[in-house]
Q: What sequence folds into this?
């Protein structure tokens, strides 16, 4: 007998985990379009490094960040943070952390901010040269609702698996559109202003838990994390290994590099504001900012993207290339970014 319809009950107890189980993107740190594994420095501005993960370091210390090939069994990459200059005494507002924001459309079914708010579970693999109690938090995009949490690293320089279950927030505003909604933070050294009591929702913006270990506080300290998953439900399940191509497409909704060769031909005439059309591989979350990347070449003029003229599908990129140009062209990466 041919099976023409699949009832959800036929899928058993794991039925709720079909589809987009992990609401985080690139949780296994395999994609690094910006740096390709090269080391970079955390700064006081929120900056993206491996795809979809950002970091901030606003202390009197310094810290580097990069994709690493040191990883637990089942993974090939992790995200590594290394303290290069310690700040052992943080001021109240000083912060150092990494995290990811989730688009509202990807967590609309959580129904947070209502009486039907769903429970979630965060799971991850972590390793540090330090041991003790570490902290993080879940927060809304407005940063006026948050849930600090803690976890323990028992053995130095050893990957350990951690899970944290959080009852959904029945208060606050949690957008369900194409903007940011849920933020997940892992504290690497957070002052008292942004550290709160673990295990409870608060009407304030917190990044970590009070009393958590400060990675930025110890020179040469290391912190690795991978296999980061945020899923609906009260139990951590196995990591959602999506095909590499699928994960790439998910990342490209927010950041994409198009290797483009553009040109215009004028025979002994003049050209000004030539218009090229760039086709993105993936429709963007919203109208992106477009810039010309490094590593290419250009001739006969300077190609400048017209930011306001770019739509989510990548059309209407104008070029202002001067006059009396015979054969202007550009051969360089074109970067479109619309991060949360």
A:
């Amino acid at each position: 007998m041919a099976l023409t319809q699949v009832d959800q009950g036929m899928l058993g107890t794991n039925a709720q985990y079909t589809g987009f189980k992990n609401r985080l993107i690139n949780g296994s740190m395999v994609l690094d379009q910006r740096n390709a594994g090269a080391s970079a420095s955390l700064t006081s501005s929120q900056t993206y490094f491996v795809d979809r993960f950002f970091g901030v370091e606003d202390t009197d210390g310094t810290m580097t960040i990069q994709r690493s090939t040191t990883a637990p069994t089942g993974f090939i990459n992790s995200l590594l943070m290394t303290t290069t200059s310690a700040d052992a005494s943080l001021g109240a507002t000083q912060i150092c952390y990494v995290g990811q924001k989730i688009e509202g459309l990807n967590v609309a079914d959580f129904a947070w901010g209502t009486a039907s708010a769903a429970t979630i579970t965060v799971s991850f693999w972590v390793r540090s040269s330090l041991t003790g109690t570490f902290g993080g938090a879940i927060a809304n995009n407005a940063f006026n609702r948050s849930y600090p949490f803690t976890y323990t690293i028992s053995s130095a320089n050893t990957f350990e698996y951690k899970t944290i279950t959080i009852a959904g927030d029945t208060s606050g505003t949690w957008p369900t559109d194409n903007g940011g909604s849920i933020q997940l933070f892992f504290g690497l050294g957070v002052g008292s202003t942004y550290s709160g009591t673990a295990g409870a929702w608060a009407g304030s913006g917190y990044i970590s838990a009070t009393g958590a270990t400060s990675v930025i506080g110890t020179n040469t300290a290391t912190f690795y994390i991978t296999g980061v998953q945020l899923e609906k439900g009260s139990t951590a399940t196995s990591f959602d290994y999506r095909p590499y191509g699928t994960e790439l497409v998910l990342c490209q909704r927010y950041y994409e590099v198009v290797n483009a060769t553009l040109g215009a031909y004028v025979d002994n005439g003049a050209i000004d504001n030539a218009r090229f059309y760039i086709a993105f591989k993936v429709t963007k979350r919203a109208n992106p900012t477009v810039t010309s990347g490094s590593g290419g070449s250009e001739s006969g003029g300077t190609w400048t993207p017209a930011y306001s003229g770019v739509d989510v599908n990548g059309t209407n990129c104008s070029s202002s290339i001067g006059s009396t140009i015979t054969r202007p062209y550009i051969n360089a990466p074109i970067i479109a970014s619309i991060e949360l």
